[in-house]
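It is worth pausing here to work through a concrete case rather than discussing structure prediction in the abstract. The textbook approach is simple: state the sequence, then state the predicted structure, then interpret. We follow exactly that order.
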Amino acid sequence: MKTRLSAIHPLTLISLGILSPLFMQPTQALEGEVPLSSESIPLLSELPLIQDPPKVPALGEATKYLPGQTPVHLVLRLGERRVYVYKGDEELASYPVAVGKEGWETPTGEFEVFNKEVDPVFLSLWTGNKIGPGPDNPLGPRWVGFWTDGKTQVGFHGTNNPDSIGQNVSHGCVRMFNKDVIALYEKVELGTRVTVEP
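Step two, the predicted structure:
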């Protein structure tokens, strides 16, 4: 037994890619309504189908298909002790930083932001002591993590020692002035590419 589509509006079928927009009569399209009587709605087998419906991008890939959406990426130049924010080839901003000292060098290579925190808690690797948000916290007001070995992490963060900016003094992390790390935090998202160059 054939079932008529009297309960499904043709605009719904068009949005699902089942019905071609060419099926609707011009007067019906202008009025925005299609009568739903059993005589005016065709059988499903009579509908002109779209041969190649559009492909839906996989999760996490949608931004690749949006026009004008050039992702932001970061380039950290250790020798310059400076991080650059780019959108495509356009430099949006750059900030002075402190990087890892000898024996605790900041890792080089291609990474992605995997963690962002507002008012992070500092945990000492040596003593296990915790320091909460505030002026004594060595991480400052923001954390943007981009490297981990499963035990420790390296990322961009603020500082309670602004005089150290521009030097090789950290245990691998990238220290920034507090106002700068807040600005950087707002420009990146999870998955933002981070290139660390010597």
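Step three, interpretation. The longest helix spans residues 178-187. The CA atoms of residues 82 and 96 lie 4 Å apart.
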